[in-house]
Fold this protein.
Amino acid sequence: MASIYELAQEKVRNALRIIEKEEYFKYIAEPEQATEFTIPVRLDNGEVEVFKAYRVKHSTARGPAKGGIRYHPLVNMDEVKTLAFLMTWKNAVVNIPYGGGKGGITLDPKKYSEREIEIITRAYARRLARIIGPDIDIPAPDVYTNPQIMAWILDEYSFIKQWEPAVITGKPLELGGIAGREESTARGAFFVLRELLKDQNIAKPRIAIQGFGNAGMNLARILAESGYNIVAVSDSRGGIYNEKGLDIEKVIDIKKEKKTVQEAEGEKISNKELLELDVDILIPAALDNQITKSNADKVKASVILEVANNPVTPEADKILEERNILVVPDILANAGGVTGSYFEWIQNREGSIWSYERFVNELERVMTTAYRDVRAVRNKYNTTMRNSAFILAVTRVLGAMRQRGWI
Ligand code: NAD
C-alpha cells in the first residue's frame, strides 16, 4: 500500500504529467531537510520519558519554510513529511513568499499536565532554535497546539537568539499575535466559495458543513452573517439538519453551552448522512478521509469545498470527477489560515499593527486572486481544480528554483 507521502506525491506527479514536465519531479520529490530528534523530559511523577520530535523543511525555494506544529500520538516522519510537502504547494497557490515546513511531537497531550506540556515544549523549542528563524522556518499551531504553546517556543527562542516575534505565528495577542488570524481559515474559504458561486451561477445554495471547530464554526458564522442558508452542521457526536436552514447563532450558543451541536433545534442526523444530503455545497471541515470510494457515489452536492486537509481520498476524487462534482482542493480552500499567519509575520517584522478591516481586505485580495489564478489554469488545461491548483503551485516553485539556478 502506498504511504501517505507517496499519495501526496502523486498529486504533484499528476500536475507535472498534464504540463508534460514529469522529468522535474525528482527536484521536488523529497524534503530539503528532515530532522528527527528525541527529547528526554522528567515528568511530574519523577520518571523520565523520551519523546520523538520532528521538523521538516520540504522546500525553501520561494522563501523560508512555513507550517504548523502538531502534538498527536500518531505523529510520525511520514506524516510530518507529507504535511510539509503540502505546505509548499499551499503557500505557492496563494503566492505568499514561503516554502513548506511542518513539525510535531509524538504524544497524546491529554495524558500530560500543563506543566509537563510546557517543559516538553520548551525542550522541543531549544532543539528547534538552531533550525528555525523568521527567514529560515516559521512554525505555527496545528492539531492540539495553541497560542500558549507558541508563546513558550518564542520565549525559549528569544533567550537563545534574540527577541524575534516573527519566528513563530499564531501567538497570543500580547506577544504579537493578531486579531483575525483565528478566523482566517474560515474567512479565506468564504472568499473562495463566494467567487466560485458567482462563476457557477448558484444563487441560493443550500450548504452542509461537517465539523464545528475553529474552521467549521467560524465558516458557518461568516456564511450565516452574509445571508447564506446552512441546512446542516455536525461535530464528532453527530449532526443536525433543517431543510429550511439552521439558526447558526443559536447553534453556536448551544455548542458552547452543551459541547455538541446535536442539542440544537433540528432533525438529528449522523455524520454519514450529512455527507450524503441533498445540498448544493458540501464542506468537510473536520477530518481527513471522509469522502471515500464507498460514499463518493452517494454525494449529492455539486460542489465540495475542502476546508479540512485531505477530506477526499484519491479514489473518491476519480469518482467525483466522473460525476462532474467540482472539488475545491484544500491547498486553495483552507489557505486562508497560512495567509493569516503571513500577515502576522509581516506586522511583527514591521513592528506595525493593522486594523481588522485591513486584515480582512488583504485576505480577500490574496484569496480571490488565488482562486482566479487557479481558474485561469483550469481554463487552459481543462482539468480538475485540484490538478489546476497543483499545476499553478508547481510552476511557481519550479520557476523560483530555475531563477535561483538550482535546476
Ligand atoms: P478543531 O479541532 O477546532 O475542530 C474539529 C471539529 O471536527 C470539531 O467540531 C469536532 O467535533 C469535529 N469532528 C471530529 N470528529 C468528527 C467526525 N467524525 N465527524 C464530524 N465532525 C467531527 O479543528 P479545526 O482547526 O477546525 O480543523 C478542522 C480541519 O481543518 C482539519 O482538517 C485541519 O487540518 C483543517 N485546517 C484548519 C486550519 C485552521 O486554521 N484551524 C487551517 C487549515 C486546515
Summary: The chain is about 45% helix and 20% strand. The first helix runs from residue 4 to 18. The pocket of nicotinamide-adenine-dinucleotide is lined by residues 185, 210-216, 234-236, 271, 285-287, 307-309, 334, 337 (CB under 6 Å). The first strand starts at residue 33 and ends at 42.
